[in-house]
Amino acid sequence: MTGVDSNLELSRHFFDTGTITGLQSRRALPILVRQARTRHPITYGDLAREIESHHRPIQRYAGHIGSAIRELGALDSWRNRRPPPIQVLIINKRTGLPSKGVDSFLQPDFRSKERAIGRGAALAPYFEEIFAYPNWEEVMAVFSMKSASTAVDELNLIAARGGGVGGEGLAHRALKEHVAANPNIVGLGKRHPLGKKEYALASGDAVDVVFEHNRHTTAVEVKSHTSNEADIVRGIYQCIKYRAVLQAQSAVSQDHYSVEVALVLGAAMPRCIRRLAVAHGVRFVENVKP
Hints:
The chain is α/β, with parallel strands linked by helices. It folds into 2 domains: about 5-140, no CATH class; about 155-285, Trna Endonuclease, Chain: A, domain 1. Helices cover about 45% and strands about 10% of the residues. It is built from 11 helices and 7 strands. The chain has helices at about 5-15, 20-40, 45-50, 60-75, 110, 115-130, 135-140, 155-160, 170-180, 230-250, 270-280; strands at about 40-45, 90, 195-200, 205-215, 215-225, 260-265, 285. The strands form 2 sheets. The protein has a 5-stranded mixed β-sheet with strand order 3-4-5-6-7, sandwiched between helices. Strands 1-2 form a two-stranded parallel sheet. The radius of gyration is 21 Å and the shape is globular. It starts with a helix and ends in a 5-residue tail after the last strand. The mean pLDDT is about 90.
């Protein structure tokens, strides 16, 4: 059997079966490749929303993808470039870990870890291997798949041209004050120190709200209910910038700290923009009222 024949047989066996599992796995794999490119895992819930599925079957789809990837790597033409188990990028929102269903695809040193902290540390090399793997586009081509689109190309252009609104509006100020006084909005404890407003970064930027405690920093960008879609897109990219700058500052600081970012919205997150936030690992909280 030629390499082409083997590829076609794999695609038919795993993704062109006419089953829900095959169909949903076909929809999910390009999304995982997108996450590998942006170097961010994706939660079971976010992946389920994007492929329009309940979250419970996601583990089954992950195993199906893992089996397809493993079979592809076993082909002679792929043995020197075996794809890593990309389904590891699907994680539980609370624990930050994949389900134990991934264990059979990983090395014994990972399977022996029972505690979450040990499993988390053991996952890091797998994440790095997945992020660095250079042949994901070719893997998708084997399975006749196209790249996952975030459907925001036009919004990116509008956001880049728009430049934002001059000055701070009353709605934005009210939401910013509310967030700074209520750290629980972004998942921090009610007893967490209050946020600092207009927090200055070394890049010259000012973050709407920053929470600092126990060597952990959470930077929050705020977009009120008056923000349009282009402004929300800008907010996502501002979060990406804040994360990069804070991580760079932390790397050369005597007091190293971990960094997280969040986008708080006064209205609902538009569906197409939700995908952009998920792709870049920007957590968001929507419909927050001062």
